[in-house]
Amino acid sequence: MKIVTFFVSVLTGIAFPSCNIWLTNVLSSLARKPKLLSSLHRLLSLWNIVGHSEHHERNLEKERINNAVPTQRLYQKLDIWNLAVIDNIDFKQKTFSFGNIYDTTRNSSHATLRMAFQSVIPNYLATCQEELITLEEDNRIFGMNFTMQEALDGFQSILENLLDFRSTNEGNLEYNQNFDVEIIKKAILEKFEHGCKGPSPHVVILEPGDNPNSDQAILGAATMYKADFNLQETAYLDIVADEAIYRRYGLLNLARRLGVQFLDKFEAAVDYRMTSRVLDFLWVAVGVSINIFTKRKNINLSEIMNENTDTNIFLKIWYLYYQWAGIWKAHRIGMRIGNHNLQRDALAAASPLFPSAGKSNYAVAIAQHLSTLTKYPKLNEILQHVGAFRIPKNIDDDGSENQKPVCFGFDEALETFGVHFIKQTSASLKS
């Protein structure tokens, strides 16, 4: 009946245009406005006009998914570095069963997401033999290093230049206030070398594993990669699990003890980008305040942590936060610009923070990561070329390629291009 009414309205509107039949006017208005095409499609679906085509497209989509062979998209070249990633993915039932929804629990299912990031590396790295270094007691893996001290000094120099301190004839201290976080960020980015200058990695979502509720299931998901990549007995594959080192920051514990109580709400929400933004603002505020205070009191920054004096206790506490947050900021910048050496050295400098904040699992993970990079120098050099997920290059207005890439950590890329994509696709399909 709906279809008959629709066609009668259309034919009447064509035969008698002066009648101004409302239905045809509505359809013509929707068709002329691109932003309303989705509304037009929903209206036609409601009238069962495009029902057959939607049903056919849905069946065709399911057929293509069932016939897909993900391993055929894997590159098998010699100059390809394969990074295999596993992560747990949870699905919740979209609707409740019939009955009182307050008496019914929503069902959920779990699977192991498996992905591969394939990056092109220089030929000499692909052909050279793997060198194994034996770790000894005198190997200095953890603690402050030259790279990080240089980065912190650079941050301090940028703040001093932007503040532009000067004294008036009356002896008052004046400083520049015409800058913000974005200006500071831009000045910092210009000081560091960008990495990951090759093409963006090739991402392949492979067949998922079983429910990751046991070590055996995780081992099974990892073993599946042997068949995917046709690995021989003597070959090896780099496999990582989705564990963001800075996902739940030890800095939050430190900041909370300093009295910044609102940060626990961000940790509870586990909002990575929002938490990072707040920490960024806090670092700038603390750094600017310390610089202004020390200038007015004529205190040298190198004298703040003097252990022989018990003065300026609060200044020491916030100066420590300024230093630790600066290390975190350097690590995050290294990730965004694809500078693996900056990430590695920032992680080494920040390593004492995690056990002191009670993050024993992260402390073990960092120790394992840094010791692996020291033990396998070839892997460390490979990561200098492909240490992060490079977002595809932008094209400038003049038509030239922008050689300064924006990069994601592999865990961010996993969430963006893996988990989010699969959940979005699964939500659009009806079983």
Give the gist of this structure.
The chain has 431 residues and is an alpha+beta fold. 52% of the residues lie in helices and 10% in strands.
Task: Please characterize this protein's 3D structure.
52% of the residues lie in helices and 10% in strands. A four-stranded mixed β-sheet has the order 5-2-1-6, with helices on both faces. It contains 17 helices and eight strands. The longest helix has 26 residues, at 272-297. The chain has three domains: 2-65, no CATH class; 73-128 and 200-240 and 410-428, no CATH class; 146-198 and 245-390, no CATH class. Residues 243-267 and 395-400 have low confidence and may be disordered. 19% of the residues are buried. It is of the alpha+beta class and 431 residues long. Strand 3 (166-167) and strand 4 form a beta hairpin. Helix 6 packs across helix 12 (313-337) and helix 11 (272-297) packs across helix 12 (313-337). It has helices at residues 2-15, 22-32, 37-46, 51-67, 123-127, 146-163, 181-189, 215-228, 250-257, 263-269, 272-297, 313-337, 340-350, 353-356, 360-375, 377-386, 410-428; strands at residues 80-92, 108-120, 166-167, 173-174, 202-205, 238-241, 389-390, 407-408.
